[in-house]
From TrEMBL:
GO terms for molecular function: glucomannan 4-beta-mannosyltransferase activity; mannan synthase activity. InterPro entries: Glyco_trans_2-like, Nucleotide-diphossugar_trans. It is a multi-pass membrane protein. The chain crosses the membrane at residues 6-22, 307-327, 339-365, 420-440, 446-469. This is glucomannan 4-beta-mannosyltransferase.
Length: 472
């Protein structure tokens, strides 16, 4: 598995290098030219889950007012929040913006259900394209002018995906670590997928879909917690192409509390594994796409990135290597224990040059998170208890801005359960014991790594990572 992951990373690096050298930009691969005001494009619908900043960004889009509908999809159950969002929509409507506020009386299907309901309104049925943004995403005014041409001039393109730009990446060490992981995803996985296969996973936000392609693929489905990836795979199996624009960035916020990040990573790891289980036979039997593309989707996109990567990181680096200190007869070759992991890490880190000095912290952080990702992966494959768990990823900015006046919430009494994470603490004790044993009786000097990793597990087990906001 480590070799599989290594080959995948090297392939990504080589492919991206060739893409840059050959200048395979989307503007060169697909028809593209600036759209003029007199070109008839039809209407564009905007499903949004928003409040002030997001609604303001949507309403500030530069696009003919008679060809756009801004749709605010609010799934909140708090009457106060509902009222605030509706008032904000009315304020923009009074300025002549074609904006619609939609609130459901249930949360069936979560995000997929909200998007599906939004598309079924009569005023949305005549639209040709739909741009989707999550609550904390703020597109620039020229977003549509830079994305719609790829759809309008290339009838086989279904999706145009923009890159994420993090407004709070420097908020704490945890957000810096997230930035490093996501930068690799956007710089390598999305870029190579778009240029080489015209396929990649839809990120669920900051993208524009051709509604005809969306409908042909079967629309939004809530059978997994990754409705965005589900739709992308189904659309790809119908022969549609995707375009990724790495130079088009949309501002958003990273989760800055460890609790929120854990929930997000559970969903992002469990959902793909569960979708893989549900679609593996459908992908294999599909006759509309090439064998090469099916191999890419099944092996590279799903198996290596969504399953192998998590299992290798946790089982090999946090279980197998530490356990070998008790069995001196077992010796892991240096290429497996040192060289390959180092090369994989360096390739991952290239995407965020400004954070190279944090590389050791990133390795330790990712190894701790691999515990939850591996657990979530097996839950998805086995369809166990939390397979369909959906917890909205809370952002600290949301908590601060949702209160009238923008004041930070008052600190309340501390509850020990809010901060203690048992699994991390157990792993920390295990690794600490392995380190002590290796220091006393070992000969491979693993204790240097094991002590550092044990400290990382204990620190995160006590909740000393990210921003901590006490519960009311």
């Amino acid at each position: 598995m480590a070799l599989m992951l290594f080959v995948e990373r090297v392939y990504m690096g080589v492919a991206l290098l060739l893409i840059k050298l050959l200048r395979r930009r989307p503007e060169r691969q697909y028809k593209w030219e600036p759209i003029r005001d007199d070109v008839e494009l039809g209407n564009t619908a905007y499903p949004w889950e928003v409040y002030k900043f997001s609604i303001g960004a949507a309403c500030g889009m530069s696009w003919p007012s008679d060809r756009i509908i801004i749709q605010v999809l609010d799934d909140s159950t708090d009457p106060v929040i509902q009222s605030l969002v509706e008032v904000e929509c009315q304020r923009w409507a009074s300025k002549g913006i074609n904006i619609r506020y939609e609130n459901r009386d249930n949360r069936n299907g979560y995000k997929a259900g909200a998007l599906k309901d939004g598309m079924e309104h009569d005023y949305a049925k005549g639209c040709d394209y739909v741009a989707i943004f999550d609550a904390d995403f703020r597109p620039e005014p020229d977003f549509l002018w830079r994305t719609i041409p790829f759809l309008a001039l290339n009838p086989d393109v279904a999706l145009v995906q923009a890159r994420w730009k993090y407004v709070n990446s420097g908020e704490c060490l945890m957000t810096r670590m997230q930035e490093m992981s996501l930068d690799y995803h956007f710089n390598f996985e999305q870029e190579v997928g778009s240029s080489t296969y015209a396929f990649f996973g839809f990120n669920g936000t900051a993208g524009v879909w051709r509604i005809a392609a969306l409908n042909e693929a079967g629309g939004w489905k809530d059978r997994t917690t990754v409705e965005d990836m589900d739709l992308a795979v189904r659309a790809s199996l119908h022969g549609w192409k995707f375009v990724y624009l790495g130079n088009l960035k949309v501002k958003n916020e990273l989760p800055s509390t460890f609790k929120a990040y854990r929930y997000q990573q559970h969903r992002w790891s469990c959902g793909p594994a569960n979708l893989f289980k549900k679609m593996v036979m459908e992908i294999m039997k599909n006759k509309k796409v090439s064998l090469w593309k099916k191999v890419h989707v099944l092996y590279s996109f799903f198996f290596v990135r969504k399953i192998v990567a998590h299992i290798v990181t946790f089982v090999f680096y946090c279980v197998v290597i530490p356990a070998t200190v008790f069995v001196p007869e077992v010796e892991i070759p240096k290429w497996g224990a040192v060289y390959i992991p180092s090369l994989i890490t360096l390739i991952n880190a290239v995407g965020t040059p400004r954070s190279l000095h944090l590389l050791v912290f990133w390795i330790l952080f990712e190894n701790v998170m691999s515990l939850h990702r591996t657990k979530a992966t097996f839950i998805g494959l086995l369809e166990a208890g939390r397979v369909n768990e959906w917890v909205v990823t809370e952002k600290l900015g949301d908590a601060l801005k949702s209160k009238p006046g923008g004041k930070a919430p008052k600190k309340h009494r501390f509850r020990i359960g809010d901060r203690l994470h048992v699994m991390e603490l157990v792993m920390g004790v295990f690794l600490g014991f392995c380190a002590c044993y290796d220091l006393a009786f070992g000969r491979n000097h693993y204790f240097i790594y094991l002590f550092l990793q044990a400290v990382a597990f204990v620190v995160m087990g006590f909740g000393y990572v990210g921003i901590f906001v006490p519960n009311a």
